[in-house]
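Write out this protein's structure.
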Amino acid sequence: MPDATRSLVTGCGGFLGAEIVRQLLRRGDRVVGISRGSYPELVELGMTHVRGDLTCRDFVLDQVRDVDAVIHTAALAGVWGDWSRYFQTNVSATRHLIDACRQNKIGRLVYTSSPSVTFTGDDQSGVDESVPYPSRWLCHYPKSKAMAERDVLAAHAPPDLATCSLRPHLIWGPGDPHLLPRVVQRARSRKLRIVGDGKNLVDMVYVVNAAAAHLCAVDTLALNPDQAGGRAYFVAQDEPVALWPWIEKFCQSAGVSFSGRRVPFRVAYGLGGALEAAYRMTGRDSEPPMTRFVAAQLAKDHYFDVSAAAERLGYRPSVTMDEGLRLTADYLRELGGSS
């Protein structure tokens, strides 16, 4: 392993970003975190915090300096909203960071992408990174992430700048503010429905493993940029699960019953398309209760060949699905008991 790294983490207060910060600090790195919000708990651990907006080019060029590596996790997620917001937050901000790395002689850039950059709405069953980007995406988020990923990979030019892109899939674990709490909430309100035949296989990644993959990428770009750089990598548990039986198991372990009622995929997909059209016509900002992207994600296979991350980055999941399930369910039960 190389000497202690001076690392800058964007989106340092997010679910993934905060875990990356903790792991970097734990191994003795000096860490600067950039975010819009305030995160005193990370400052107490030793992170230097800078508040600001990555869509402001002058801010990025001025503040992203005096480090060895940048880990760029900050993004606007979601399946609904104006294209301009996704472009500014996910594409323009990434371009500013690339420029800052070049101008300020920062040698490594690791970008947090998403497997959805290659998702067309059809099954993705054990695909690897050779699968191409689609010509059309089902929502703005994956399109913007794909554009930014292309820019990051095109910027790979060692020894001046080594880059790579990680595509962690469905990050979950204790402290997850979105994915699993949303599932549990919908199950409690009896609004959770199985979309499709309920047999689709899905990869996920426990947050500790997802963060560790980023450290592997930072280290390998330093040691062997030709081996690791200029490439995208799927990152997952390498333990695909049948999505809906796993969700039922998770709900049970969290003390929540799941009705298991079904909706045919074509019905959910058609409803999603109709709701998207209606929301666009009426100019509503809130996310529709169903979209085509969500319907396809809930009904189709999306699991991946992660051998490239293992072979080129040295990525190995340290927390298994079963262990992660137990730790997360315990956390949610404690959270429910204290609320």
